[in-house]
Design goal:
3-stranded antiparallel sheet, 73% helix, elongated
Amino acid sequence: MTARGANNFPIAWVIRGNVAPSSLSRAIQEQLRQVTGLPLSEIQTMDNVVSSSISRQRFNTLLMTVFACLALALAAIGTYGLMAYSVEQRTPEIGTRLALGAEAADVGRMIVLQGMRLVVLGVVIGVPLAFNLTKFIQGFLFGVEPREPVTFVTIPVVVSVTALLAVWLPARRASRTSPIDALRYE
């Protein structure tokens, strides 16, 4: 618990106890008032002092987390949209493949592999760029090294799994396409 004198008096006391700080507050105020003759203006627990000292870093971390989640959602939506459009444009081709005897699982696998090629290319280009750009966000990081290996492994995995789901949905729809309906599409 810390205490500060009235009128922002530059004296601060730090008191350590084995009981809850709120139970000692009145007794501490009375004792310090008797010793110094001054009333106390501010009594805080050390947890509050530490919390207020790192509040800006916590806000920045929360803000960056929100933006990262939005970026992940936008990437997933964009990947899904691109693959859904590609599958829609290729409906006659998919129908022809299915009509000629291609297995639905093979068609789905083909579409997933084509979509994931782009994702892998993005990860291969993005990770080294991110590694080199860490010096620009170093001031926003609190308690984390800018080039932490866990981050550079976890984020590409999360992005790849999200993209796999975004690619798998149109591929599943394409593999369930009826050859007759696909050939009538044109």
